């Protein structure tokens, strides 16, 4: 069995019809690859269509405000991808005269573009024989060849890149790379793959050794950090307060309600005392919990335990919150916010 021939044959018969497969425009391939990082196709497709409609060329994306890009990205998570997307569009238009680098090494110089994305663009747009290695590829290769080296180890990254290079079709890199990615997404799925009906199963080491469910191997995950958020939602005559997150970390440059982060979820009495010490509330104002149990919002290495509190502000707002910028609730949807905040807004406003 010739591995790449089987994959390509399967792909030509089973590939999904996706818009980025109908072009070799490096801008659109780059856009699709950035959107699909750590994102399923079903979730990413509407975002891709929205971005192409709003910014049909790299010049249009560069001309947009970062806040507009973040708003359109809202809900995809990993917002550094959106910031890098905008920064790279600016770099390509201003420094490269609108032309993307035309090889793997050149593409690696772009912000937010790593080995996988550079390989995908170089192979699909320029037919450079550079193999892609993403989660789907790790899964297919580890199962078919029976490789137990952890994919998130330094040794594993090098070993799988070498293997991917050796088994690819150097004469058809574009179609091969798309074939192995599609095969991992559709046929060689993470859970309950249909191995008996797989065109590779007769030569698959993982299937032969009943190792499909344990491959690929990953080293022990990083310990998840717990954080405890208390959001204070002020209301005054159909106005509220939103603040931009300026600290590097999660949700940089997105908006949220005034926040108090503590080492645990506080009682209303404890919370009101701490807020009073920060001049965020007075005895004349009530602090009303919106949700009795914390909302648990899970990020890759963080779990956020979150409660929202409503403060209906009277005329005293000028004395206790005079340094805050109030916005109309009618305009609240114009601001890019994390999913956690967006979900609350849909329920409350």
From TrEMBL:
It catalyses: Hydrolyzes free adenine bases from 7,8-dihydro-8-oxoguanine:adenine mismatched double-stranded DNA, leaving an apurinic site. The keyword 4Fe-4S applies. Its cofactor is [4Fe-4S] cluster. SUPFAM superfamilies: DNA-glycosylase (SSF48150), Nudix (SSF55811). Its EC number is 3.2.2.31. Residues 35-186 form the HhH-GPD domain. One of its GO terms (molecular function) is purine-specific mismatch base pair DNA N-glycosylase activity. Binds 1 [4Fe-4S] cluster. Pfam families: HHH, HhH-GPD, NUDIX_4. It is an enzyme of class 3 (hydrolase). One of its GO terms (biological process) is mismatch repair. The keyword Metal-binding applies. It comes from the Bacteria. Keywords: 4Fe-4S, DNA damage, DNA repair, Glycosidase, Hydrolase, Iron, Iron-sulfur, Metal-binding. Adenine glycosylase active on G-A mispairs. MutY also corrects error-prone DNA synthesis past GO lesions which are due to the oxidatively damaged form of guanine: 7,8-dihydro-8-oxoguanine (8-oxo-dGTP). Belongs to the Nth/MutY family. This is Adenine DNA glycosylase. It comes from Aquimarina brevivitae.
């Amino acid at each position: 069995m010739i591995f790449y021939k089987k994959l390509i044959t399967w792909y030509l018969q089973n590939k999904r019809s996706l818009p980025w497969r109908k072009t070799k425009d490096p801008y659109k391939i780059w856009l699709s690859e950035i959107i699909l990082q750590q994102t399923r196709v079903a979730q990413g497709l509407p975002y891709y269509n929205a971005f192409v409609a709003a910014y049909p060329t790299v010049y249009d994306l560069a001309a947009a405000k970062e806040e507009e890009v973040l708003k359109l990205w809202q809900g995809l998570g990993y917002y550094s991808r959106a910031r890098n997307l905008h920064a790279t569009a600016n770099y390509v238009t201003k420094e490269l005269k609108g032309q993307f680098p035309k090889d793997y090494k050149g593409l690696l110089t772009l912000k937010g573009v790593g080995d996988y994305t550079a390989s995908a663009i170089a192979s699909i747009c320029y037919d450079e024989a550079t193999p892609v290695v993403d989660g789907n590829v790790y899964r297919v290769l580890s199962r078919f060849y029976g490789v137990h080296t952890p994919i998130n180890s330094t040794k594993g990254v090098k070993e799988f890149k070498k293997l991917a290079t050796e088994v690819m079709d150097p004469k058809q890199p574009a179609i091969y790379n798309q074939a192995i990615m599609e095969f991992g997404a559709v046929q060689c799925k993470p859970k309950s793959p249909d191995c008996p009906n797989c065109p590779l199963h007769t030569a698959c080491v993982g299937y032969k050794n009943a190792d499909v469910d344990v491959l690929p191997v990953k080293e022990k995950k990083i310990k998840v950090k717990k954080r405890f958020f208390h959001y204070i939602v002020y209301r005054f005559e159909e106005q509220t307060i939103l603040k931009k997150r300026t600290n590097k970390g999660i949700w940089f440059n997105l908006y949220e309600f005034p926040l108090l982060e503590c080492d645990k979820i506080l009682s209303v009495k404890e919370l009101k005392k701490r807020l009073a010490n920060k001049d965020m509330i007075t005895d004349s104002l009530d602090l009303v919990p919106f949700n009795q149990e914390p909302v648990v919002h899970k990020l890759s290495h963080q779990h956020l335990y979150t409660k929202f509190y409503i403060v209906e502000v009277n005329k005293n707002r000028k004395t206790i919150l005079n340094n805050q910028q109030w916005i109309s609730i009618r305009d609240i949807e114009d601001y890019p916010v994390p999913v956690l905040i967006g979900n609350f807004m849909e329920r409350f406003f």
